[in-house]
Each structure stands twice: as structure tokens, then as C-alpha cells.
Amino acid sequence: MTPRFDLADLRLFILAAEEKSLTRAARAMHLSLAAASLRIKALEARLDLRLLYREPTGVTLTPAGLTLLRHARRMMRQAALLQSAVDRHRQEITGHVRIYANTTAVSEFMPAVLRDFLRSHPAISVTLEEKLNPDIAQGVRDGAADLGVLAGPVAVRGLQRIPFSTDRLVVAVAQEHALAARSAVRFAAALGYPQVGLHTGSTLLHFLEQKAAEAGLAPQWRVQVGGFEALCRMVEAGVGIGILPASAARRHQAGLRLLALDEPWAPRERSIVLRQPAPRYVQALIEGIRAAQ
């Protein structure tokens, strides 16, 4: 069996060799002489080798002890380098953050948040992936992501949830559309018209199809696009109407009318979910998300 080395034992051994005295080595390590002697004897027993000659005037090294001293010093230098490298991670807030987020977060506000965060934390790197809301919570719970950004009622058992803003879904229509004179519209009425939606796999598309299924309805997807800007431009061109978060719609609303979606689930609370305890750099990113809203 390969013997295991305790760094404290090695440090005691090195001090004893350098001081030529186990008494002085014990004093430097804040140990009793009896405790220091037991540690050296245990080290010799693990190695099945005699390391020190004990003499009335002190200790001297055996040939095996000289070999151990050379390698022990090297190990202690490597341990010091390791500690220094780890300390730099704490001092510089160095690390990697894995984020799972919904469609709105990925395409709308996280780019600006990450720009500012990465500018002030140059030693941090980030992976940002778009996921469905249930998958976000599960990914954080399983450790696949460090934090998640989601919206709406999602089970987050075992995680800390930090609400940070509220958005609401609206209906975007072209200015000449039949619904344009209204201020609000029910979901069922909106589904009576051709729809422009996001790509398959997006959080919002999944949510709207789920709500339609609950009402016994099916959206008529005329076009599916990759982002909110493209969705708004399709709506402006008269291809169909679109349901999207108000924050995204306002950014791209030129040529559109925005109607309130008259449903109790239209307001969507945005939350951050994470496991505890979180590293300092994850906490710093959370503060950046909250400050940006």
C-alpha cells in the first residue's frame, strides 16, 4: 500500500532535520515533545523505515531520512504554490459560471448584464444556455448549472429563489390589424388569428402551447423565428400576431400596437434560482442581474 503523507508531519520532520533537535521542532510546531515524537514514530511506521537516529545531543538523519528530506522539501514547496494559486482565485474572484436561462433572459437583458459583469470581473468566464423553465430549476438542482434565470410559477424545491422583477405578456399586432383598436385581448381571442412565434424549444413557445392545450385550443403558427426582434418585424409586416414579454416588445415596437393580454397568468415574476452556498463570483453576478432591472 502506498503510504499517505500528512503535510504537518512532513513539516515537523523537516524542522527536526534542520534544527537537529526534535525538542526545538516540537516547540516551533506548538507541540509537546511527546506528541512530536509520536508523530515521527507514526511516520516511520507508515514507511517501515527508520528516519532519525536519536542521540543525547539531538537527532541525525538516516540515509532514508536524507532521501525523505529532499522530497519532503519539494512537496512543501509544491503545497505552497498550490495554496498561492487557490488564494488568487479568492482575491481576484476567478472562476467559471454556468447559467441556464429562459428565452427572454438570454436574448433581452442578460447580454447587457454580462457585458458589465465581465468588464468588472475579467478573470471570470460564463456559459449561458437557453433552457425551458422546469429544466432550468432541475439543472441547478443537479449541479449542471450554477444559477438559473426563469419566469413564472416553477417548482424550485431545494433551491434558493430570488425574485428580481416582474414582466407581463402582451399581444403585438400590426397597426392596421383588426385588433389594433383594442387595449386588451383574451388569450382565446388572440388564438383566433395566425401566430408568429419563437423557435421550437424556446421557453415562451412551450409555455404558450401549454396554456393553449389547457384551454383546449391550438395556436396557428404561420412563422417561427429565432428571436423577439424578428418576431416583431414579422408582425409589423402583417404575417400574424405575436405574444411576447412587454420588455421585449417595447424594444422593438416600431410599427406595432401592443395590447394587454387579459389573463391572470400574463404577469410573469422573474427569479434567480441557485444552490447554497454559492461562490462569491456567483453572488456578484446575482447582484448585477438585480441591479440591471
From TrEMBL:
Query: Which residues does the UniProt record annotate as the domain HTH lysR-type?
Result: 5-62
The protein's UniProt keywords, in alphabetical order, are: DNA-binding, Transcription, Transcription regulation
User: What CDD domains does the record point to?
Assistant: PBP2_LTTR_like_1 (cd08421)
Q: Which GO cellular component does the record give, naming just one?
A: cytosol
Q: Which Pfam families match?
A: HTH_1 (PF00126), LysR_substrate (PF03466)
A molecular function GO annotation = DNA binding
Q: Specify the superkingdom.
A: Bacteria
**Which PANTHER family does the record cross-reference, listed alphabetically?**
HTH-TYPE TRANSCRIPTIONAL REGULATOR YBHD, LYSR FAMILY TRANSCRIPTIONAL REGULATOR
Give the record's family classification: Belongs to the LysR transcriptional regulatory family.
Query: What's the name of the protein?
Result: CysJI operon transcriptional activator
